[in-house]
Each structure stands twice: as C-alpha cells, then as structure tokens.
TrEMBL record:
Name of the protein this chain belongs to: ANTAR domain-containing protein
Gene3D superfamilies according to UniProt: 3.30.450.40, Winged helix-like DNA-binding domain superfamily/Winged helix DNA-binding domain
Domain ANTAR: 178-239
SUPFAM superfamilies to which the protein is assigned, alphabetical: CheY-like, GAF domain-like
Pfam families xref list: ANTAR
Any GO molecular function: RNA binding
UniProt keyword terms in alphabetical order: Transcription, Transcription regulation
Organism: Nocardia terpenica
InterPro entries, A to Z: ANTAR, CheY-like_superfamily, GAF-like_dom_sf, GAF_ANTAR, WH-like_DNA-bd_sf
This protein's record includes keyword Ligase: no
Domain of life: Bacteria
Length: 248
C-alpha cells in the first residue's frame, strides 16, 4: 500500500468520525497518530487551539513536544504561533532559526528536536471570532509536526501534512458548532424554566392579592427593585412559600 493510499484511508476515517460525537481531543489525537504513521520523518505531533484568546495544546503524542509548545506560549513566539498568526505553513530547521527564536530553539535542541513543521488550522473568520474573545489571527490553531532528523519534511511530506490540516479544521469546526448549539439549547431550557417559574409566582400573587396578570407582574417587579432581588429569585421564594405574599 502506498503512502497516498494510507493518506486517503486516514482522511476517510477522520471524515467519518466528524459526526460520531467523539470528544474533540480524542479525534485530534487520532489526526496526530495518523500523521506520525504516514510521514516517515515525523517523530511526534501536537495540535494547538486558540481558546478564550490564548493558545493551548489540545493534544500531543509526546510530553516533550507538549513542553516545547509551552515554551512558545510563554515567550509568545515560535514557529507554531507564527503559523497560527499568519494562517500559513512554517517549516523551521532549528539550526537555522536560532537567531529568530533563541529560547525555543535552545529547548528544542535540548529535547533532540531538529525540525518542526507547523500548519495553520484555518476556519471561516466568523467561526474564529465566535470561538475566541481575542483571536490571535485568522486561524483557529495549528498542527505541529516534529522531527529529530535534520532538514526533515520535504515538499511532498509537507503537502501530506497540509492535507491533514484540512481534516483537522473540519473536526474543529464541527465540534465548535455543536458546542455553540448545545449552549444555545441550554440557554433556551433555562429561559423556559424561568418563564414558567415566574408565571407560577405571578399566579400566586394574582390569587392572594386579587390582582390581574399585569398588576401581579408589576407587584413582583416593585418588590424585586425594593429588595434588590432578581424577579426569578423572588419567584423561587414565593413558589416555595406562597404565604410570604401576604406579608410583602
């Protein structure tokens, strides 16, 4: 089986997992595993995602490269962050970029890493903004591939890795849309529960104080303002003890 065949199988499997509901880190770790198995010179892989405006390693195949990601986050620079910020692919030979990223290169050399290939995970701009209060760039993250071999990752291997970034981007996009849909559904459930609770409290006020619906809600609002208690919280109290209406 050729490298191209392996890549096609991997991408098909990753595409199939998009709708399975697996946790995002699990699926992205599979992306890293496939990259290592298909790209001969790849020693390890990690994936950086921007969350709440900050880069974070969501998964890594080796603790060593996860630590190298942290070095970049701490100094706020490095090939992986540069790829993310410019929405591009960055190939860095550690021996050649030491002047540009000295602290990162020192840590990489100490860990035995000689080459890194970082490919941005690009999402639609509105998706990046919706998922991060302060996005670092137009990319949602980066797929980082590491090697202990000098001058690793020729153009063909770089192209293979880039193909995996497309699959990884699709996984991230789907996961974030599901996350937002779930959050909206929860907000709707909360809103409906609050509405029902206030309606029950309003009914109690109408019965105990002989008011119509508008007057009862006005009464609740007035008590809420005078006691600095939210209408919802006031409704909880009155539903729990309706007799309090008589003493308010």
């Amino acid at each position: 089986m050729t490298q191209t065949d392996d890549t096609a199988i991997a991408l098909r499997e990753l595409t199939d997992t998009i709708t399975t509901g697996e946790p995002l880190p699990t699926v992205l770790h599979r992306v890293c595993d496939w990259v290592i198995s298909i790209v001969p010179e790849a020693t390890a892989a990690s994936i950086t995602l921007v969350e709440d405006g900050q880069p974070r390693t969501i998964t890594a195949t080796d603790k060593v490269v996860a630590a190298l990601d942290l070095v970049q986050y701490r100094v706020d620079d490095g090939p992986c962050l540069h790829a993310l910020r410019t929405a591009s692919t960055v190939r860095a030979d550690i021996a050649r970029v030491r002047g540009r990223w000295p602290e990162f290169c020192d840590a990489a050399s100490a860990a035995g890493i000689t080459t890194v290939l970082a490919c941005a995970l690009v999402l639609p701009v509105d998706e990046v903004v919706a998922s991060s209060a302060q996005p670092l760039g137009t990319a949602a993250g980066a797929l980082n591939v590491w090697s202990d071999k000098p001058w690793a990752f020729d153009p063909v291997e770089a192209a293979l890795v880039t193909m995996f970034t497309g699959a990884a981007s699709a996984v991230v996009l789907t996961a974030r849309r599901w996350e937002r849909a779930g959050a909206l559904a929860e907000q709707l459930r909360t809103a409906l529960a609050t509405r029902d609770l206030i309606a029950t409290a309003k009914g109690i006020v109408m019965a105990r104080r002989r008011l119509n619906a508008e007057e009862a809600f006005g009464w609740l609002s007035d008590i809420s303002q005078r006691t600095n208690c939210k209408v919802r919280d006031l409704a909880v109290i009155l539903v729990d003890d309706p007799d309090l209406v008589e003493f308010a």
